Amino acid sequence: MPELPELNPVIHGKLRLALLSLLSGVDEAEFTWLRSRTGSTDGNLGAQLMKLEEAGYVTVEKRFVQRKPQTLYRMTEAGRAALTEYVQALKQLLGGAIVS
Questions:
Q1: How far apart are CA 11 and CA 21, in angstroms?
Q2: Residue boundaries of the structural domains of the chain
Q3: What confidence score (pLDDT) does residue 99 get?
Q4: Parallel, antiparallel, or unpaired: how do β-strands 68-75 and 29-30 relate?
Q5: What is the model's pLDDT at position 93?
Q6: Is residue 2 within 8 Å of 80, Cβ to Cβ?
Q7: pTM, whole model, 2 decimals?
Q8: For this UniProt entry, which segments traverse the membrane (predicted)?
Q9: Mean pLDDT of successive 10-residue segments in the chain (100 residues)?
Q10: Rounded Cα–Cα distance for residues 75 and 55 (Å)
């Protein structure tokens, strides 16, 4: 039996996987946009983004726009590589399974 691939535990969380997937398709995203796209609470979203930041998968920029705080997130090259590896491992794990 072939050895099963390891799935990156940082990415494997449902919300973290969704966040990286969303960020992979844009140059940057505001916290509020990510919240609306995921339906997450502020606290949970902030905690999961912090885990991704600590892993080096996203960067954060905080600034003010017309005196209102704005938090922007960008996926790093390390984040892109980790997401690609995760998807490849998932494909290997699924193998010949039929996914529809």
A1: 10
A2: 14-91
A3: 55
A4: antiparallel
A5: 85
A6: no
A7: 0.88
A8: none
A9: 82 96 97 97 97 98 93 98 94 71
A10: 11
